[in-house]
Amino acid sequence: MPELPEVETIKRTLEARIKGLSVVSAEIFLPKLIRMPGLDEFKTLLTGRKFQGLDRRGKYLLLHLSQGLVMVIHLRMTGRLVYLPASCEVAPHTHLIINLDDGCQLRYSDIRRFGNVSLVPAADLNKLPGLCSLGREPFDLEFTRGYLLKQLHSRRVILKTLLLDQSFIAGLGNIYADEVLFRARIYPQQRSNALTQRQVARLFHAIRDVLSEGIKNRGTTLRDYVDGEGMAGNYQNLLKVHNRENQPCAICSTNIVRLRISGRSTYFCPYCQRM
Q1: Mean pLDDT score of the chain, rounded to an integer?
Q2: How many Å apart are CA 275 and CA 273, to the nearest integer?
Q3: How far, in Å, CA of 154 to CA of 87, rounded?
Q4: Domain coordinates of the chain in residue numbers?
């Protein structure tokens, strides 16, 4: 699933391409993709609108349109949103094509078909299910070590599980949670309320540093992810533990171990991340 660095990279690459362009028409090939409004109303409202800017909230992509509308996209597991010339061959599993007034298209494709698109007034963004329950952004000024310590100690939850909770921190997913815990030298199954102040400080800096590195390297492509121009990311080449089972730790040479936590594969170094 695209996480914060991937969605941020898509946002940045698309904004450079589509800001200022207007929608000529929209073609929908998978009706269930459109969460709200209805299909006919979606196409009617979208036609003629100009893209005024893009934002990101957690793993959600927000495309701001003229007259106060916002197109909200959640890519889920395998969604891709790519800007292409209309002459390019349409890839399999393409479910939405937005025709633009520069002769190019914005295409949404999704092999597993879990993603969704909504078109809502900007004033109603905070009412949209999923979006309205997101926790703080890791780069917000309000996200401080003190805030993180208070939130961790108010819960008694396995730390890896908590980091994946979007109502706790917006944007972290399985890949970056593993890398964050390794960077902070914390055992993934440690309880959140048992962390020391020193561990919380390491965790705070690891969250920001790992996500910043992910963005700098244009995200992680393990299989499906590409940015808004169809280019793969580079951060997979820098991963220290995720998807590296039985490979030596870069620090101590102990083999990386994989275990299941809350149904998700978790990778860690049993020496560097001792309980």
Answers
A1: 97
A2: 7
A3: 55
A4: 4-127, 145-268
Catalytic residue among 50, 76, 264, 270: 264
The gap from C-alpha 158 to its chain's centroid, in whole angstroms, comes to 22
User: How far is C-alpha 35 from the geometric centre of its chain's CA atoms?
Assistant: 19
| DSSP character string of 198-255 | HHHHHHHHHHHHHHHHHHHTT---SSS---TTS---SGGGG-SSTT-TTSBPTTT-PB
Tell me the per-residue pLDDT of 185-219, one tens digit each, with 9 for 90 and over.
999 999 999 999 999 999 999 999 999 999 999 99
- Name the catalytic one among 11, 59, 218, 240: 59
- The residue from 2, 5, 138, 188 that is catalytic is 2
In CATH terms, the fold of domain 145-268 is: Helicase, Ruva Protein; domain 3 (1.10.8)
Q: CA torsion 65→71→75→80, rounded to 10°?
A: -40
Tell me the one-letter amino acid at 157: V
> For residue 184, what is the enclosing H or E element?
helix 174-184
Q: Among 57, 25, 55, which Cα is nearest to 42's? A: 25
CA 35, 38, 39, 41 dihedral sign is: negative
Q: How confident is the model at residue 105 (pLDDT cuts 50, 70, 90)?
A: very high
Q: Which residues contact 189 (CB under 8 A, 6 or more apart)?
A: 158, 159, 160, 261, 275
Domain 4-127 superfamily per CATH:
MutM-like, N-terminal (3.20.190.10)
Would the pLDDT of 53 be above 90? Answer: yes
Taken as a whole, the chain contains a residue count of 275
Is 8 a residue of the active site?
Answer: no
Q: How sure is the predictor about 1, in pLDDT bands with cuts at 50, 70 and 90?
A: confident
- At 116-138, the pLDDT tens digits run 999 999 999 999 999 999 999 99
Q: Is 19 a catalytic residue?
A: no
